[in-house]
User: Fold this.
Amino acid sequence: MQVRKEQLEIPGLLRIEQGQGNLTRIVITSPLASAEIYTHGAHVTRYEPAGQPPVLWMSQSSWFDPAKPIRGGVPICFPWFGPKQGDTTAPAHGFARLMEWEIESTSHSNGTVVVTLVLRTSEATRAKWPADFVAKYVVSVGAELSMQLSVQNTGQSPIRFEEALHTYLTVGDIHHITIEGLGGANYIDKMDGAKTKPQSDRLINFTGETDRVYLNTTSTCIVHDPDKKRRLEVSKSGSNATVVWNPWINKAKAMPDFGDEEWPGMVCVETVNVAQHAIELPAGLTHVMTAKVRSWPTK
Ligand code: BG6
Assistant:
């Protein structure tokens, strides 16, 4: 492992260390941005463009435990989203965020640092999902944060899966932000019996617990944040749905790994393929989904 670690580290730009909970953490510090990625779940927990405050939100109450997901940053949800249909014992949001991913390679170019992590079929994955696959995750840390999840079907029959890059964003105050980019779409309202409703206002604002799957949505979302004086853009490809989530007061209190008072400071804008947008992947083919996050200071 020591040899591998030395081959993967990039002096002055990338080091590998034991992070919280003794989990392996990749720390990136470049002239363009700094970031941290845990190999547990291939989980990006920090992204800060140079001279700017953190873009990703992390709970101070998060677990850092091999058996539990990290709360905040960018969990990878795969191969299902939410509860697994017909199996109440299966972990929420799939197993990918609970597994140790291998660091396949690291590189850099013009100040952007690139890390590729991989998760392959194993006895542990087969026990939870009988499919053969290779999932590759390419994280590029530069003036923007780019995350590309590729899933290859390495088996002999078609596979079906859901996936999400569950991006937690830091905001000044959820009551003051608006999200642009989903106006005119229909959404599944998980707060109202999964009814499908139209998003008639151009901007989304928040007045209570919000848990929505916006269907047929491929466009960039912009989080306007007057308190932090910035705009966060989430752009994407290979994704046909978008989840918007804030737990509000009661749900935050009910989650042991989420501080009771933390909910006003975050919003999730998730790049996903879920529900009717689940991916059907024939044998041998690869599906690629990318999310990019960028922060723009405003006046
Ligand atoms: C969101 C879902 O993406 O994730 C919510 O839409 C869910 O329904 C939330 O509560 C958090 O999920 P978890 O499993 O990380 O607590």
Observations:
- The chain has a mean pLDDT of 97.
- The first helix runs from residue 2 to 8.
- The chain has three helices and 23 strands.
